[in-house]
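[Q] Does anyone have a clean structure-token version of this?
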Amino acid sequence: MATKFRRALGAAVLGTLTLSSLTACGGSEPSGGGGGKDDKTVTVVSHTSFEPSEEVLEEFTEKTGYTVEVLRGGDAGSALNQAILSKDNPQGDVFFGVDNTLLSRALDAGLFTPYEAEGLERIPAEHRLDGENRVTPVDYGDICVNYDRAYFDERGLEPPETLDDLVRPEYKDLLVTENAATSSPGLGFLLATVAEYGDGWEGYWKKLKANGVEVVDGWEQAYNDRFSGSAGGRSGDRPLVVSYASSPPAEVLGADPAPEQAPTGVATGTCFRQTEFAGLLDGAGNPEGGKALLDFLIGESFQEHLPLQMFVHPVREGTELPETFTRYGATIDEPHTVAPERIAADRETWIKAWTSTVLR
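[A] Here you go.
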């Protein structure tokens, strides 16, 4: 299961792919021309972090008569770019995986047809960011710096807790983060610094650069290759990594006996709140099937399925969280946030400035 977690989260932050790199799961590739091959197939276009189990998809089929086919195409940004490029001839019926950092790009492109999903009233207003219901909130999570407990314990060094801590000399050359221009967690971490420091965020990144921050293209490289606390090999030498507040539960899932604590921890003062959405693609070949799937995604069974399958929080109020998820994951009471309209107005400017400051 931890392998599935790493594959899922890694897919959310890989580099840009072309349309030809879309891969189909659960059936043969669709013939194009507006999504599903027939009126009993619902095609979901997504980044590869969309990893529902076969059991839950079978439940949807039993309930509705529709079979789900998934086309995965890179990280959140590249998958969205692909969907926008093909919007006049959509590759599917539903797009899953646009988040609040990229939402305005999708809405401005006219990618979705409005639909008020059944059960939407069970989702808190803080996640319902589009008043026209062009997208449906499905899950949320917190992008945070994670730390390797063993590294800090062995050296008698307290792990960082806040963004301010990360520029202190004792943490020099310890942090690896993802590229804000190519990675959803990387962009989320940038937005956390914008929220914390306002117009001074570039100055903060200059300090972080001087303190030896390493930047890689995506989450999989950062977490599995460079982070010393990853169960995926532990070959890295960086004990701090930008990941998620839900990363620690994935490191212990299936462990017998269950440890007292996860081998990784979360710097709770570094986090940015990320909400993820799905939407009915404009021009979908099977709009009724797409609507049924959106209803299902915010229904009780799928929402209960999310924490230990995709390692995100359900958005539906009253959804019970598994003990493993709550015991080992960090609760972020005061995450950094940036208003959607401000992200829409300034995102590209911030990314260009970040690239100039950090990578050049």
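[Q] Thanks! Anything notable?
[A] The longest helix spans residues 340-358.
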